[in-house]
Specification:
about 120 residues; mainly beta; eight-stranded antiparallel beta sheet; 1 helix; 8 strands
Length: about 120
């Protein structure tokens, strides 16, 4: 199953009423033909399932898409749970452009993100 690069951009919030393409995530994950996350395929390709968090003028953060023991998904930037950013019902989302997902960020706030782009991932080895 081919890996996809998914770009999430901040959706409308009180702080950003129009949303913001300068705030978001870009990550790599295996998706099925309909756009659902494939956890079995993730197991085989988890080393390639990376995430990049970009937040306007803040430094970028780089980490991994992880599948936790409790079955939930998160973005993780360092070993341990302290920095993990859980993703609400990640395995139930349809990853197609225009859909929305919610990520609970470092500050504990759950923010909405719009799926701005889904494209084939080019993995450099």
């Amino acid at each position: 199953m081919p890996l996809k690069r998914i770009r999430l951009e901040l959706a409308r919030t009180p702080e950003f009423p129009e949303g913001s393409p300068a705030h978001g995530y870009e990550f790599v994950a295996p998706l099925d033909a309909k756009g659902h996350l494939e956890s079995r395929e993730w197991t085989e390709s988890k080393g390639a399932c990376t995430v990049r968090r970009f937040w306007a003028r803040d430094p970028e953060e780089h980490g991994s898409l992880i599948h936790r023991k409790d079955g939930s998904w998160a973005f993780s930037y360092e070993p341990g749970d302290d920095d993990d950013e859980p993703i609400f019902r990640f395995d139930r989302h349809l990853f197609v452009e225009g859909e929305y997902v919610t990520v609970t960020e470092h500050d504990g706030v759950a923010r909405p993100f719009r799926i701005a782009r889904v494209s084939p991932a080019v993995i450099r080895r």
